[in-house]
Amino acid sequence: MKTQQVKNPLGSNERKLLNIVRQHGIMPRHKIVEHMDVSVQAVGQIVRRLDQYQLLTHHKAVTVGLGQPPKPMSVNADGAFSVGIKIGRRHTDVLLVDLLGCVRDRYSIAYEFPVAHELLAKIEQHLHRIQAQLTQEDHLLIGIGIAMPFALGGWHKLLGLSEAQASEWNALDITAAIQAMTTCPVKLAKDTAAACIAELLNGQGRHYQNFLYLFLDTFVGGSVVSQGRMLESKHGNAGAVASVPMSLTMAQDQLLNHASLWELEGRLSAQSFEPLAAYSEEALSTQHLKQTQDWLASASQALAFAIVSGTAFLDMDAVVIDGSMAPLLLQKLITQTEDALKAFNWEGLWQPKLLAGLVGSDAGALGGALIPLHEYFYA
User: Fold this and answer.
1) Is the CB of residue 288 less than 8 Å from the CB of residue 241?
2) I want to staple 368 with a disulfide (CB 3.0 to 4.6 A). Which of 120, 135, 145, 259 is the partner?
């Protein structure tokens, strides 16, 4: 396996061409020229530089009329790889992702709540397997992206955790711990920010330039996309919807108390059902349906409240909702949220479209993997 820590040899034109081809798929050179606004000769030089690093795949020319037939090309998916690690309160996913952002391999680790040193040992095992595989195939591993809540040890009283469990996470430098396992550069991102990056690059972001992104996991979180870029704020909390207040009379009531899968877990547990059913199709089974319907009613109303409030500040084109849940449950949540939005006063506001995310439960881990790929090859 090759690792890459040297200065990026790609210039802005090389990255721009790669990004154009990534977005459009297989493209002939003359079409690339139209998008690049440079000469045919300049594109040829850029292509030759990219070919030095085996980042393009050249396809058989297609004859169309007279003259030299167009020679289409595409991004070589095997040109580089990255690893995304999503560490959550219920499970951790480790994904191997290629240059096109496609998942090539995955490992999942489930738990009630992660014990830091035990989880790190399992992550190291999976990383070693991935690195051994890439070494055998002589592939380039460009980096590792970690996606996780910035305060995994937080909310410990709400989740019923011990002080010791919370303290272990609060004292841990997760970036340094994983960096010690590899020679590849390691980057850390907030889990919802990483998920938003995945949606921006591989999902609805290909069609919408301004949207509020909401992701429902153990807790609900979010991010904001403005002018085709994720909004970077001073404290990293743009779109931190979990803390949106829900009541004029109950100061401590927040969105996370209504629109989080943790809340659905609680409803299931209260009936002696398996709480992790909240994350699968089991949530819609006959025995769980009453609790799930009650949660949907509460979550959709709370999300509608937050969306109207957000619209007043952001004036976005769309709201994208995704989560660690069954696709059918997500669609029911969106439908009921759309119904709840009809009851609000939209005077003076532009009502955004409500859309399902296209990435799904992989969003955090995929976004973590896309961070080094995007920064190195496409940004």
Assistant:
1) no
2) 145
The two tokens of residue 356 are: 């399902």
Structure-derived torsion over alpha carbons of residues 94, 99, 100, 101, reported in degrees to the nearest 10: 20
Over residues 118-130, mean pLDDT? 96
Could you report the per-residue pLDDT of 360-373, keeping only the tens digit for each? 999 999 999 999 99
List the one residue out of 369, 376, 368, 371 whose CA is nearest residue 7. Answer: 376
Q: From its phi and psi, is residue 162 left (phi > 0), alpha (psi between -120 and 50) or beta?
A: beta
Which pLDDT belongs to residue 6? Answer: 45
Q: H-type helices in the chain, by residue range?
A: 12-24, 29-36, 40-52, 116-137, 156-159, 163-170, 174-179, 191-202, 261-270, 289-314, 327-341, 363-373
CATH number of 2-75: 1.10.10.10
Q: Distance between CA atoms of 309 and 369, rounded to whole angstroms?
A: 32
In CATH, what number does 204-358 get? Answer: 3.30.420.40
Task: Name beta bridge partners: 141.
Answer: 3, 81
pLDDT at 65: 56
Q: What is the mean pLDDT of residues 256-275?
A: 93
pLDDT averaged over every residue in the chain: 90
Interaxial angle between packed helices 40-52 and 12-24, expressed in degrees from 0 to 180 and rounded to the nearest 10: 90
Closest by CA position to 85, among listed 359, 369, 360? 369
**Share above pLDDT 70 across residues of the chain, in percent, rounded to a whole number:** 92
Q: Give residue 169's pLDDT.
A: 83
pLDDT digits (tens, 9 = 90+) for 320-351: 999 999 999 999 999 999 999 999 999 999 99
Residue 227: both structure tokens together: 């002018």
From CA 58, how far away is CA 3, in angstroms rounded?
25
Asked if 79-195+364-378 and 204-358 have one fold, the answer is yes
Least confident of 6-20, 91-105, 136-150, 263-277: 6-20
Measured in degrees and rounded to the nearest 5, phi and psi for residue 117 equal: -70, -35
Beta strands in 191-289 (DSSP E): 211-216, 220-226, 229-230
Q: Can you identify the CATH homologous superfamily of domain 79-195+364-378?
A: ATPase, nucleotide binding domain (3.30.420.40)
Whole-angstrom Cα distance, residue 201 to residue 178? 25
Structure tokens at 347: 């005077």
